[in-house]
């Protein structure tokens, strides 16, 4: 039976998995690498680290799965969105890549809106406002702050598409990831020539755009030797990590949405038509399903808030977990469960790295609000979990405001592995949530795209129907739902009340 590889170029590491044609996962492996922050708010990585991690993870998977080189029939690529790899005329990397969570480009976002004729006109052109994480502001930042490097640049690639170049020698991207550059006409699924003209950017800087199932190139002899596979293996378009993760969750038809509680949190809804929020609070991107779209809200520090809490304030629990040989998150959530729903009026704003949806504010900051002598560690930990989930509900509310039906919410990420956090999500979202049999995320999604693109399935919808099923359901606790419905409006108001103070705090650091 044919084997398909899914390769996901993540922020903390590259994950590769091998999947049989029937959806069975044979093996997976992750190779980690560093992230650099040379200045506050900056976030960079070395693209060569991605490539070396790809080589190592593919080789580990082939060995672990006892897979012969000739069995590999297709590769799908996914990765962190919005990053920028700048190449010179020799196709060498000019400088470290700027990542999705890099916040240096506020001035360039303002420049883009001004050149486009205003925020509303920009949204009409590319379906989204200018945000600091997107690729277009990074290109302008290079032009404004490193003109010598910009003058050398002949090609700008997204992270996964740099790996595509190393695999195939081809410069290519696909519609879902390209949507996050802010340079794609999302409705027409091609680069926006009018916006490129207004920004005075040469269209030749950007690669060809494919649909996610389409074959974009074939593995070269040199790359095949390094990875331990056969020359000529097809590499499909793949998808940005969110669209690819949605494929891996089976979010390929109307009414089914996903709530992914990873380091960042994403609420993702499939749409058969282009649905644009005029206020630009959520993203409208091309889906990795041919000729379909999706609406997506992003919480920058969802599970990342609990990770921060663990690392900075839970030394005792981490040490105890090590002695007991259990996951420290289990001890933290067990303690959180001792506090009542609503944490007795304690709120946590999860804006540790600014926020994207719905505030689009890089200056937003995290806070516990409402502390009293009644509150202890259990309240602190529960409030962090509730705060991240309230922030996810912000996106869900906007999606429902756009009249996108929400018939089933599929959970994934670390927040889906915890029964306690699954229950909190059901209660705060106000409806039943489910989990599915696939837990491998974007890497699994692009392996399915590779299977569809090379003919194992008619299309990716058929591939998902054949391989993905619901395995567990969590019903709403009506009593807790009432508590959270009363508390949620207070959570929403807290950002508005503190917005000016957040900006004042930021200026103290200038």
Reconstruct the topology from this structure.
Elements: E1 3-9, E2 13-20, E3 25-32, E4 44-45, H1 47-64, E5 72-79, E6 85-87, E7 97-98, H2 106-116, H3 119-126, H4 135-145, H5 147-152, E8 155-157, H6 159-168, E9 172-174, H7 175-179, E10 184-185, E11 190-191, H8 193-198, E12 208-210, E13 215-218, H9 221-227, E14 234-236, E15 239-240, H10 241-248, E16 256-261, E17 265-271, E18 283-286, E19 293-299, H11 303-313, H12 315-324, H13 328-336, E20 347-349, E21 367-369, H14 377-401, E22 408-413, H15 414-417, H16 419-429, E23 433-436, H17 442-453, H18 460-467, E24 470-474, H19 478-508
Parallel strand pairs: 1-5, 5-14, 5-15, 9-12, 16-22, 22-23
Antiparallel strand pairs: 1-2, 2-3, 4-7, 6-8, 10-11, 13-14, 16-17, 17-19, 18-19, 20-21, 23-24
Helix pairs in contact: 1-6, 2-4, 10-17, 11-12, 11-14, 12-13, 13-14, 14-16, 16-19, 17-18
Describe the structure.
The chain is of the alpha/beta class and 510 residues long. The chain has 19 helices and 24 strands. Strands 1, 2, 3, 5, 13, 14 and 15 form a 7-stranded mixed sheet that branches. A 7-stranded mixed sheet has the order 18-19-17-16-22-23-24, with helices on both faces. Helix 11 (303-313) packs antiparallel against helix 14 and helix 12 packs across helix 13 (328-336). The longest helix is centred in the C-terminal third of the chain and has 31 residues, at 478-508. The protein is globular. It starts with a strand and ends with a helix. The model has no long low-confidence stretch (mean pLDDT 95).
